Amino acid sequence: MTARDRTREPETPVAASGQDPASETPVAASGQGRTPEGRSGTPMLDVRDLRVTYRNGERAVPAVRGVSFTLDRGQTLGVAGESGSGKSTMALGLLRLLAPSAQVSGEVLFEGEDLLTTRWARLRAVRWSAASVVFQGAMSALNPVRTIGEQICEPILLHEKVGQRAARRRAAELLDSVGVPSRRSGSYPHEFSGGQRQRIMIAMSLACRPDLIIADEPTTALDVMVQAQVLELLGELVRESGIGVIMISHDLSVLSHMCERLAVMYAGRIAEIGPSRQLIAEPRHPYTRALGRAFPTIGDPASRLAPAGLPGDPPTPPELARLSEGRGCAFEPRCSEAVAACRTETVELWPSGPRREAACLRVLEGSGT
Amino acid sequence: MKPVLEVRDLMVTYPPRRGAAPARAVDGVNLQVRRGEIVALVGESGCGKSTLARALVGLVKPTGGQVLGDGEPLGYSAAALKAYRRHTQLVLQDPGGALNPRQNVFDAVAEGPRLHGLTDRLGERVHAALARAGLRPPEEFAGRFPHEMSGGQQQRVVIAGALALDPSVIVADEPVASLDASVRGEILKLILELRDSLGLSALVVSHDLGLAWNIADRVAVMYLGRIVETGTVEEVLLRPKHPYTRALLSVLPDSGERPVLLTGEPPDPAAVPGGCRFHPRCPLRAAEQDTLCDSRDLPVLTGDPSRSSLAACHLVH
Ligand SMILES: Nc1ncnc2c1ncn2[C@@H]1O[C@H](COP(=O)(O)OP(=O)(O)OP(=O)(O)O)[C@@H](O)[C@H]1O
Ligand SMILES: Nc1ncnc2c1ncn2[C@@H]1O[C@H](COP(=O)(O)OP(=O)(O)OP(=O)(O)O)[C@@H](O)[C@H]1O
Ligand code: SF4
Ligand code: SF4
Ligand SMILES: [Mg+2]
Ligand SMILES: [Mg+2]
């Protein structure tokens, strides 16, 4: 991280200070109500000014442009945002799971240890036993020539000191818990439907009882019924085992159900962050508002045969690079509430209510607060 | 007028493995898509939607029944399939599996047009398809490889690939599943526009009932290999009859109803229950204690598109 890269003043309340008063109700990410004495104990995960740029020859794609948040045990953070806004890049960047073309800066403190600088061997150990990832598009990530039972047993055998029988039993339990009959353990990935494969990947991510689960669109292929079962299972793990969850989803209702807090990303940054239900019910950032409006409600005559979207395109990589250097709001060209200052002022996350922040100039005017 | 796409008593059975019973993934389905019509196929994960979609474009050969395109039974020779797919395009579920990792975006989208000899002004065609699928500016994406794009961008490449041939029928398997609401809305608008301007017909597989509300004229609800309820979107989604459809709708966040979570064994096409196939999990049967449900098989729904609603259930009609 270079000082030039920082767009905020250090004293501005930011999304992740790592110094939330411990007395507050679970806050996944907030710098508000920061007290001079700080908090007792460090949060499980403390992400500070994470930036990722993909470089291929001449071309640079600044995919994540300064993201900060914290997450504690037993907490759940949802991440929503436009396709291409950097959600997966951010999530995979946390565990250095990105392609070599990705340049990463910032700090990712996991139990106080910076994962961006730690040794690879150490990182590998963390990936298996402490933090696990359900990749987006995981459906096609299963090994086609091995049965799913074998594939779930493998990490258990490798990382927990148990025998074949116990591993098989645990694999069977995991499969049943996600609604895939365990008697099909001997089947190969291509013999399952898309949603079944997605659930097998979720079962696999739980195999080694991680403390943190990063799930990237884990329920895209699941119908509401099965989705409710899977979310219930994850919710139980959060409540009973105190695991932390970062869940990326395009489905706001899934996130408001599952996650206490929600971060909405736009063009590589957090546009708005705060308690999920509040963010969805009373969005402060125009992009969050547009996202909510585009969500269809069955029975609403206004959306019948009239899907709502958001016209226009997100900034191109060169535009993003310019935005990172200078001033102006990345959402301005598509924003229905833009004013002249939106093109010239520096926009950063500002408090927009109790425990919430929004990166919009209008928040400063007090509109809607 | 003949439906552009039709299946009659379609069966697709996957061969058994090691002593198990064969999996009856599609177990007797009648369905029609008429010209300019958009039909949504919804249902639980694993109920047979993708299998049905693949059968519709000839990727899976039915073990029983028939697929008809414009009233003609589908031929399975390479030449017959090629001619058929010139106009009927499949958008596969799971872009990760659908895209070749070593092929850049341009070549992926150009594959269909090249196969069908549409190489005149190919660049224009490909760029137009990319732009329509929301990958703008197209030059930004044309040279990229799948791993250099986000999940939703990959999904849009697959959609662009289908659009590049200006098909008259699209069979789309979860086409917008990994897209956020704002991009999803733009893609759905595009499908509606193509229907209005070019008479595009579509069967859209989705687990998302909101999608049906947004773009479909009719909806078919599938459960364990069969269609259990079908009719106009208004009829099925606002006045659902079948207990399964009712349960599905009750779980939606703003249904205003108490969610009915189905319990019991997940359905398995290798062990289809006798009587009504939904009976082990049916809340209505549990309440009514009806014995017909367990013992008497239900007839396969005709799929007659002129009926505003049809449900396969002993207790509701
Ligand atoms: N090659 C195969 N061999 C055996 N069973 C199979 C095979 N392919 C699919 N199945 C089974 O057939 C059923 C239907 O699968 P299909 O992929 O059609 O479901 P789907 O409705 O598309 O589900 P999803 O919404 O999860 O994608 C599933 O139970 C699946 O496990
Ligand atoms: N290896 C890469 N090289 C170049 N650009 C990349 C690479 N991987 C991703 N990108 C670009 O970075 C941006 C962010 O991608 P990312 O996958 O993080 O998006 P996302 O928010 O997860 O989107 P989606 O909801 O579609 O999955 C996108 O514009 C994408 O095209
Ligand atoms: S800062 Fe201006 S352009 Fe940006 S979101 Fe707010 S109102 Fe819109
Ligand atoms: S026939 Fe019986 S078991 Fe089947 S859906 Fe109707 S009430 Fe339920
Ligand atoms: Mg992604
Ligand atoms: Mg499927």
Automatic annotation (TrEMBL), chain A:
Keywords attached to this entry: ATP-binding, Cell membrane, Membrane, Nucleotide-binding, Transport
Transmembrane segments: none
Any one GO CC term of the record: plasma membrane
Molecular function per GO: ATP binding; ATP hydrolysis activity
Stretches the record annotates as Disordered: 1-46
Localization, UniProt: Cell membrane
Membrane topology label: Peripheral membrane protein
Matches recorded under SMART domains: AAA (SM00382)
Chain ranges of the ABC transporter domain: 47-292
Pfam families, sorted: ABC_tran, oligo_HPY
Residue spans of biased composition, Basic and acidic residues class: 1-11
SUPFAM superfamilies according to UniProt: P-loop containing nucleoside triphosphate hydrolases
Transport listed as a keyword: yes
Single Gene Ontology BP annotation: peptide transport
PANTHER family: DIPEPTIDE TRANSPORT ATP-BINDING PROTEIN DPPD, OLIGOPEPTIDE TRANSPORT ATP-BINDING PROTEIN APPD
Similarity annotation: Belongs to the ABC transporter superfamily.
Official protein name in the record: Peptide/nickel transport system ATP-binding protein
Species per Swiss-Prot/TrEMBL record: Streptosporangium canum
Origin organism lineage: Bacteria, Bacillati, Actinomycetota, Actinomycetes, Streptosporangiales
Automatic annotation (TrEMBL), chain B:
Pfam families xrefs: ABC_tran (PF00005), oligo_HPY (PF08352)
Xref: SMART domains: AAA
Entry superkingdom: Bacteria
PROSITE patterns to which the protein is assigned, alphabetical: ABC_TRANSPORTER_1 (PS00211), ABC_TRANSPORTER_2 (PS50893)
Entry's transmembrane regions: none
Domain spans labelled ABC transporter: 5-249
UniProt-listed InterPro entries: AAA+_ATPase (IPR003593), ABC_transp_ATP-bind (IPR050319), ABC_transporter-like_ATP-bd (IPR003439), ABC_transporter-like_CS (IPR017871), Oligopep_ABC_C (IPR013563), P-loop_NTPase (IPR027417)
GO MF terms, alphabetically ordered: ATP binding; ATP hydrolysis activity
GO BP, sorted A to Z: peptide transport; transmembrane transport
Keywords assigned by UniProt, alphabetized: ATP-binding, Nucleotide-binding, Transport
NCBIfam families found in the cross-reference section: oligo_HPY
PANTHER family according to UniProt: D,D-DIPEPTIDE TRANSPORT ATP-BINDING PROTEIN DDPF-RELATED, TRANSPORT ATP-BINDING PROTEIN
Family to which this protein belongs: Belongs to the ABC transporter superfamily.
Protein name, as recorded: Peptide/nickel transport system ATP-binding protein
Organism of origin: Streptosporangium canum
Source taxonomy: Bacteria, Bacillati, Actinomycetota, Actinomycetes, Streptosporangiales
